[in-house]
């Protein structure tokens, strides 16, 4: 950038008021034109009424254009980097959101499964409790029946003796 020179040919000329005019569509800022008019070294060659050396002027214009191009390229790279950072940040945010939703979904499913299992266990416990109560009633019924039978047998035995 700038060190190798430019392959673009720029044609320029000075008008009667020593203003620089660019012919081939390249615009030069007023500050650049003023800098080109200023003598850069005391041993500078000047023609006639203070005109600037064409070769030196071409060289300065090429350097200025190269610097301007480098500045624009740098700004473009900064913009691209900022856009890429924004894109990466947005994509990362989307990924985190998807992961959060996925983990919430998994957690919700796990909670629902656990609730269903708990409800099933509660129902099973109630069923077993009813069965146990039924067995207990049946055992008490059998106990009463056998006590009654035992009392009858004891009464018969006592009757014979």
From TrEMBL:
GO BP field: inner mitochondrial membrane organization
InterPro entries the record matches: MIC19/MIC25 (IPR007964), MICOS_subunit_Mic19 (IPR052632)
UniProt membrane topology term: Lipid-anchor
Lineage: superkingdom: Eukaryota
Lipoprotein found in the keyword field: yes
Principal location listed in the UniProt entry: mitochondrion
Listed Pfam families: MIC19_MIC25
GO cellular component terms, A-Z: MICOS complex
Compartments it resides in: Mitochondrion inner membrane
Keywords, ordered alphabetically: Disulfide bond, Lipoprotein, Membrane, Mitochondrion, Mitochondrion inner membrane, Myristate
Location of region: Disordered: 28-57
Protein name: MIC19 protein
């Amino acid at each position: 950038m700038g060190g190798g020179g430019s392959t673009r040919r720029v044609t320029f000329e000075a008008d009667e008021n020593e203003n620089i005019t660019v012919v081939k569509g390249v615009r030069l800022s007023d500050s650049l034109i003023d800098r080109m008019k200023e003598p850069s070294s005391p041993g500078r060659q000047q023609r006639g009424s203070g005109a600037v050396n064409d070769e030196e002027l071409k060289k300065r214009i090429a350097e200025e254009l190269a610097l301007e191009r480098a500045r624009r390229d740098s700004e473009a790279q900064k913009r691209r980097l900022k856009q890429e950072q924004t894109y990466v940040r947005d994509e990362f945010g989307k990924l985190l959101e998807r992961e959060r939703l996925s983990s919430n979904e998994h957690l919700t499913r796990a909670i629902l499964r656990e609730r269903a299992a708990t409800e099933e266990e509660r129902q099973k416990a109630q069923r077993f409790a009813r069965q146990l109560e039924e067995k207990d009633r049946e055992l008490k019924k059998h106990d009463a029946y056998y006590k009654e039978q035992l009392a009858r047998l004891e009464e018969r035995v006592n009757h014979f003796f």
